[in-house]
Design brief:
2 copies of one chain form a homodimer.
Chain A (H helix, E strand, L loop, with lengths): L4 H14 L12 H8 L3 H13 L3 E4 L3 E4 L17 H7 L4 E12 L2 H7 L6 E11 L2 E11 L8 H5 L2 H8 L4 E12 L2 H6 L7 E11 L4 E9 L6 E6 L4
Chain A binds a DNA duplex (30 and 30 nucleotides) through helix 3.
Chain lengths: ~240, ~240
DNA sequence: CAGAAAAACTTGTTTAAACAACTTGCGAAA
DNA sequence: TTTCGCAAGTTGTTTAAACAAGTTTTTCTG
């Protein structure tokens, strides 16, 4: 449920691109025409188009226009520049998600954990290991650390449905930013036990630190992905800066 | 050499964050104060801050302010959301880059190549294989395909210095957008021959399609990275949309 | 003193206008 | 006919203003 004008226009243009109303390589209507069509100001149009640019749907060219560069083949299970839970991502792609908790404990961050995760030494944490299944295939092994003060009363039941739903709708905490780093790492015994890795001896690893609206990091997660089912998309632009 | 006001302000604020003039978790001056300091309009300030947000330096909170969330440990060799050549990236990180061309040929795209790269079947292409060294370590094996019509007269010498420099400054073509996909793939014989992979049997692979200002894809590249030296950073935000 | 209401301050959205920079095409001049 | 220059159309940058929405502080009321 988008709430702003530019967000509505973004959605509408995105739909028209995805349904092929604008063809690949075709120029979109000019800002002037879009202003008339949507009956809004130029800034609002430009903001909608700016979001289409960052999401890789169009490219703007000064003096020329805005070109549709969307190709439907590039659909991908992982959203770019957007925080999304496993469940949300799966449902968006029409898959059947399932999550199993294989370990859940409370612990206090020692020096080692603190250095790895970025939490302060001495922090009270929940630590859990979860396996994510998509259409009954084990694809992801997650190591989650949550700050107990901010995410209290975490249970196995919550962890198997949706922690993000619990955080946002029950605890009413708002999630803002997440820093993610993508690497490739050797497999561990745990990986081997729970994921079917075949010949691969390494995994695609996404570590992320997530912050709430008070600027406090409340989550550190390492997501270890089965390589043959992992792909991550990005749209880059040439900036001089 | 930034040319716009918001870009100058972005740079200045970024410097102040990186040098610690604003501390981690500290709130930046309010928009009102920044307007007075830089003597500009609110929109210009907001644009500079918007870029800091997408680059992961700050997080904005309605009603509260703008918080510095930059941590110097996260420095990384690969730029986010920015097209950058290997040479540019290396120099920016103070490393000594070297590039060796191990294969260079012309070819015509058959059905197979066309499907993989996205070029039209029958396109005249340059195909080259290059190894990128950083401080004398072989880190990346590149497979590059360039559209011969748009990148003519490609030589070994150009390919060993900087193709992007040749494209932008000699051919005067402007590079706009690049779509990148990250995956993990099994190693091939060529990978094994030119990169020191140790125990790893797979690599971090970045495939990218790059477009010029006419919306034409002129480059398809597959970059195969030695896993232990690869890392890629991303900043995500929670969007409702 | 405690709590509620109001004020002040923050960022978020939208409109309007002007000028700059770049591209294309038309028409006039050579 | 060819070429140059200009006009028209496009996106890019910047300013100004108003209101909305969220947070914090102050003030007032009980």
């Amino acid at each position: 449920m988008p709430k702003s004008r530019y967000s509505d226009i973004y959605q509408d243009l995105k739909n028209k691109i995805e349904t092929g109303e604008y063809e690949f390589q075709e120029l979109l209507p000019s800002e002037h025409q879009l202003i008339e069509h949507y009956d809004c100001s130029r800034n609002t149009i430009r903001r909608a188009i700016g979001n289409l640019v960052t999401d890789g749907y169009v490219q703007t060219m000064q003096g020329k226009g805005v070109r549709n560069i969307y190709q439907p083949t590039q659909q991908n299970s992982f959203a770019i520049g957007n925080i999304e839970s496993f469940r949300e991502s799966a449902l968006r792609n029409g898959k059947k998600p399932k999550t199993r908790v294989i370990y859940l404990t409370e612990l206090v961050a020692d020096k080692n954990i603190a250095r790895r995760t970025g939490f302060e030494p001495g922090s009270n944490l929940y630590y859990l290991q979860r396996v994510h299944y998509l259409d009954n295939k084990a694809l992801i092994l997650n190591h989650n650390y949550f700050l107990k003060d901010l995410v209290p009363n975490l249970t196995k039941e919550i962890a198997e449905s949706s922690i993000y739903d619990y955080i946002e709708n029950t605890l009413n905490m708002s999630i803002i930013t997440s820093k993610r780093v993508f690497t490739v790492e050797k497999m561990t015994e745990i990986d081997e036990k729970y994921l079917e890795l075949g010949d691969y001896n390494c995994l695609a690893v996404v570590t992320s630190q997530t912050y709430n609206s008070d600027g406090i990091m409340f989550e550190y997660t390492q997501s270890r992905h089965r390589p043959d089912y992992f792909s991550f998309q990005d749209n880059a632009t040439r900036r001089v800066r």
